[in-house]
Amino acid sequence: MIPTRLQTLSPPWYVRLFGWQLTQITLAAIFLASDFIVGPFVQFPIAYIVPVALAAQFSNPRSSYSLAIIQPLIRFGFVFIWDVPWSLTVSIVNAIIRMAVLLTIAYFIDRTVRLTREVKRLEGFLPICSFCKKIRNEQNEWQKIEMYISKNSQADFTHSICPECARTHYADFLDKSQKT
Asked: What average pLDDT does the segment 32-60 reach?
């Protein structure tokens, strides 16, 4: 028997590691510290995306949105420590732009993850009876195709009769209704 499987594999180690909020906060702290050390003139904006993206992908949306707001605010706080040649207004606008970009990235990654989780997909070979069209499941039991697919996917069934089957199985009723 060729087994069928629903894509429900246990997550690899790195998914569990990046799912921890401590990992995401540690990465954010490392990137903020390195940004502070190099000073105001060398910027690595991509570094702020990494913890937010990891939080949105592997954790919950609240932590990704929190990181998207907190990181630019801390970066804005660096302005008061550094001696920068630009005005406070420019720093405020930059912080708002960073927040908007990071919040947008967090939203789209979270949305993609949610939509991907909603999709259940059957894959592999499904052993099906040639006559009754029942499917053999993982417990080696035969069940109706509607039951199997409803149980193992997000699909639901409604029943109808195609015109060819209607002519084959209900020809007497069709002839009577056409006469009246």
From this structure: 86
